[in-house]
Amino acid sequence: MENIAVRVLVADDEPLVRAGIVGLLGTDPGIEVVAQAGDGQQALDVLRSRRVDVALLDVRMPGTSGLEALAQARREGLGGRYVFVTTFGEDEYVSQAIVLGADGFVLKAGSPRELLMAVHAAASGGAFFSPAVVRRVLEESQIAGFGQAQQARTLFDRLTAREQDVIRLVGRGCSNAEIAADLFMAEATVKTHMTSILRATGARNRVEVALVAVRASEA
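That's the Response regulator transcription factor sequence above. Prediction below.
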């Protein structure tokens, strides 16, 4: 069976940065850049008019920012997955992105491999944060209700043994398909467990579930 490439939108207001990202993605035969945008409004126009599997968004862009674009995409019910590409010094935006349901955060100065991993993880239903970003989030306890290890452990302990198996793998960035394969269960069963985990922990999305798993392991 022929593999279908992940269709990606790249949105960044700096042409040189955008070209660099497009060039990097072009080295992966499993990724196809189907559109580019110079600001959040252009990104929204693309998302409304064509199928995009993963949108790579710069956090700060003139006019409509990446965060504003994601918020609007959620309000309109636009499909696709959303990964932010950012720089150090923008930590305050990470929590906002997570609340909006972002599927990943990678650093512009990070390893090129992380960007490719983030695209594939998001496309397959998982989430990916650059390790450096995760450390900054956890160190500064930016996510209210999920910042303290003991509190996360309390949430973790509410789960059944099987749900704990699932959340550990979510914390490693695994997709539902990967979790199903690792735990020898149907993908539909994984989705059922995820629904229960979200309800039990009060997490709003998969990334917050992952943060619970990471923090709980530190308790």
